[in-house]
Amino acid sequence: MENEIRERSVEVDGMTLTLLHKDGKWVFPLVTYYQHGLGTPLCLALLAYVEDSNEFESETVITVNLPGAERSAGCQFIDTNNNGEEVLDWLMLYGLCTPTGRYAVSGFCKYPEVDFYQSERFMKQKELCDRYFNFVD
């Protein structure tokens, strides 16, 4: 488990991006949206930086879309089933979210809900991604 904040900046295609350290890799948090669910549900994916090619590859999707589960605006469920419980600690370490204390259950899995909109860092990342990477109608 990461217990200290480590960041670095890289320039990719003329754009300076801030990377965060997770499990021995440098990752870019990509804020995007799921296509199904009430209110354009948030999706947080991590893209791993590949230094040799100065490009990114898909690392993991941190959130899970549960269209039938009730959630508040700016909130989403964290996929601890595929990312482990420690992913929640990592998100909080970097100030990307605040746990709400609520959970959703799907199958045999229990997913914690977090509020992303309470995080200034998340909102800045969302603004960056919406401006340069998301093409939502």
TrEMBL record:
Name the UniProt record assigns to this protein: DUF4313 domain-containing protein
Organism of derivation: Bacteroides cellulosilyticus CL02T12C19
Taxonomic lineage from the root: Bacteria, Pseudomonadati, Bacteroidota, Bacteroidia, Bacteroidales
